[in-house]
């Protein structure tokens, strides 16, 4: 029926859609509340703090508010859209391109850049008190 490639792609689509669905629920409080366990335990925002609120704001068309909550929120959401589209293509073509993309090793400069950006965002999150 479904081979391993298709099951992975369908799982990716399902998880991402469930995540966005959660943010669209009327019971999702508002953009002022956090769902971050790290922040709730330590009272310090994590590097990803604000990503849910950023996405919540973006889904409602509030781009400036989205950027305030997390500067990488729009980039993250573009990657999620690309992942769903690629996973859907993989399901129909019975391909594993998304798996190959995810398994591809990063160059050293890419890892360093990623770590520096995440640390800067984390410092910013602490500074603005997210």
TrEMBL record:
Keywords: Membrane, Transmembrane, Transmembrane helix
Residue stretches spanning the membrane: 7-25, 67-85, 106-127
Protein name: DUF2752 domain-containing protein
